[in-house]
Amino acid sequence: MVSRVIPVEPFDLVIFGGTGDLARRKILPGLYRRFQAGQMPPESRIIGAARGELTDADFRGMVAAAIAEFLPAAQQDAAVIEDFLTRLHYIPIDAKGDSGWPQLKALIRADVVQAFYFSVAPALFGDLAGRLTSWGIAGPEARIVVEKPFGRDLATAQALNATLAQHFSEGQIYRIDHYLGKETVQNLMAVRFANILFEPLWKSEYVDHVQITVAETVSVEGRGAYYDTSGAMRDMVQNHLMQLLCLIAMEPPYHFDPAAVRDEKLKVIRALDPVRPEDIVRGQYLASNGQGGYLEHSENPQSRTESYIALKCHISNWRWKGTPFYLRTGKRLRARASEIAITFKEPPHSIFDDAEGWRENVLVIRLQPDEGMNLKVMIKEPGPGGMRLVQVPLDMSFAEALGDAHGDVPDAYERLIMDVIRGNQTLFMRGDEVEAAWAWADPIIEGWEARGDRPQPYDAGSSGPEDALMLMHRDGRRWREIR
Ligand code: NDP
Ligand code: BG6
Q1: Range of the domain at 17
Q2: For a substitution probing ligand 2, which of 27, 119, 178 has the most ligand atoms within 8 Å of its CB?
Q3: Closest residue (by CA) to atom 15 of ligand 2?
Q4: CB of residue 12 inside a 6 A radius of ligand 2
Q5: Do 125 and 186 share a domain, yes or no?
Q6: Domain identity same for 126 and 255
Q7: Residue at 155 is within a domain
Q8: What is the per-residue pLDDT across 285-322, written as a single tens digit (0 to 9) for each?
């Protein structure tokens, strides 16, 4: 199977924070990959902007080094890299001052797509938006790309939305949640809405419960200062897990377009019930095997920030009333494994005597690594001995099923940046969506802060705190193993 690459329109993309970690690890190598694939037209330009006094040549050298460091050797083509580097420019600029802005104004073209990527600390988003308009740099069709975190609660998200709205319309603002750019996350929508098979069963009448797991092996070492003000709830649940939940729970949009998809996601978030304190488990990893624990990585020996969270939530609408959604995510867990598991209910009546052999049907969508789908179904155990039942998986690895075409899928950032250039906001969060997600998360966080809850310790390399197991056990259910 050969993947189709449709070039986007020529563009000028300014990356504020073009020398930062995100730009070097994801954005710039990703753009090289799109150039290599033939999707970025050669007349396009990428302009790095930050306070550092770099020349174009310095910046190109930095990008070459980033490509060498962050992309596999097989993806590095010296001739293409050299060609790509000629499209790069750099302007020293201060988001908070006036230096660099006249040079940027002189460089930017009005007759190509203009995109401005805010890959800087959120405290600078307002300054950048203001200066782009006050200097007359951003044209009426210009797009801005805003990184996470988008606020740290409802009030700060509302303030940020209001600030950006003074300078740009909602149709120009692309709020990134890179989970929406992941191939398999988009596959969730394809699985649900391009097949008739699942939709009739996709409701509380047939679904016993849903588990959403994003397990990571990484620690917070090196980013403890940020993480300690955030924690797993703000860093992962309010955005990435919430987006996954929305894609699983939303009604079919009338069309795969930004307004329709985002309207349906918003309805899900608004229908979420408050989460009861007894339905939340927070954890913090302990030191093990010579590696530091959370408290050493956070630099705050008293920190109560959670590096793990598990919670049970309910959606109060006709489709989902009564079906619990269990969410969990954490750092320094046993394995890197992200998946969504939909467990179906028992058949209403069994015609077989082998009740013991019976297991629930489970549809597992593996997001990473080893993306694929697995549907567990019951069959007759082969051989004599009567009608004994056994559960077998219908297992599909996307890599095996799709071969080379899958091996070359763009990284989330590559896809999302190309969507910005195309002017397609479907995979970006709308302002009201972000606010609704905070409106749901805020009381949860305020609750544990008011109670003075401490996170429970868990061993690094384990599957999380004991109480998280109890969250499921007391409902007669169990988490799927993290492996
Ligand atoms: P870094 O601290 O690594 O980089 C910050 C960049 O901003 C540098 O290029 C810095 O260069 C520039 N900068 C700082 N102050 C100014 C200023 N006043 N004017 C112009 N440029 C300035 O941050 P990251 O790259 O890690 O993160 C960037 C954004 O992306 C943040 O919002 C972060 O939350 C978000 N993000 C990052 C992720 C990651 O993996 N790194 C993941 C998800 C989101 P200089 O000092 O020379 O000005
Ligand atoms: C980021 C979080 O948004 O997502 C990180 O800030 C987390 O803490 C990362 O590690 C996970 O992304 P991925 O793509 O590796 O699953």
Answers
A1: 11-147
A2: 178
A3: 216
A4: no
A5: no
A6: no
A7: no
A8: 999 878 889 999 998 989 999 999 999 999 999 999 99
